[in-house]
Amino acid sequence: MPKSVRKKSSESTKKKSVNRVVILGGFGFFILIYIFLRFYTPPSTLQWEERAEGSPSLREFCKEVEQIYPPTSRKWPFPALSPDGKYYIDVTEAKLGHSKVLKLYRADTNQELGRYYSERSNILIYCWLQDSTGVYLADYDPGSGSFDIGGAPTKISPVKKLLVP
After folding, report:
1. Integer Cα distance of 106 and 114 in angstroms
2. Residue 57 — very low, low, confident or very high, per pLDDT cuts 50/70/90?
3. Calpha distance 27→41 (Å, rounded)
4. Is 119 in contact with 139 (CB distance < 8 Å)?
5. Which value, in Å, is the radius of gyration of the alpha carbons in the chain?
6. Where are the beta strands (DSSP E) in 80-159?
């Protein structure tokens, strides 16, 4: 009789260890999925050019006093129309990953022309070009700047000119 009791207890111990492995394996799988979704950035459908070093300053291109996004005033700037009124842009959260998405639309039909996914967790949109051929922007990680309130972030990409197709 004691042998059967021992056998049952060893079988139940094996079942418990198998259950633990399955639970830990499943938990690890969900952690991998979470990490993938957290850092996954879909490919952008819009093209861009990086501004060359030594080119004229951004303020020479941008006539506006304030950047478009994040807004420096209390007014929400979207949809942000191009100077000629043919296009507009909007910013949303990416469904997958941890970044912002800039969407470009035709103003007359509201047709989406393309998307730009930020390579970092946030995006700075400076201004439309005066000829409406693109938007100046940069990718950045907020909260990585100096200790001064309102200090410039240290993790910022070079300024890009996002092109209208």
Report:
1. 10
2. confident
3. 23
4. yes
5. 25
6. 80-81, 87-93, 100-106, 112-117, 122-128, 134-140
Tell whether pTM > 0.85.
no
What CA–CA distances, in Å, run from 121 to 24, 68, 164?
A: 30, 17, 23
Residues 26 and 89 in one domain: no
Under 8 Å between Cβ of 78 and 89: yes
**Which of 165, 160, 86, 94 shows the shortest CA–CA distance to 127?**
160
Same domain, 80 and 135: yes
Domain that holds residue 130: 48-163
58 lies in the same domain as 97: yes
Shared domain check, 68 and 33: no
Residue 21 CA to residue 65 CA, distance in Å, equals 59
More confident site: 72 or 4: 72
Distance CA 129, CA 131 (A): 5
Higher pLDDT, 163 or 26: 163
Task: Let me know whether 98 and 132 are in one domain.
Answer: yes
In this structure, the chain runs to a length of 165
* Residue 23, helix vs strand vs coil: helix
Q: Bridge partners of 126? A: none
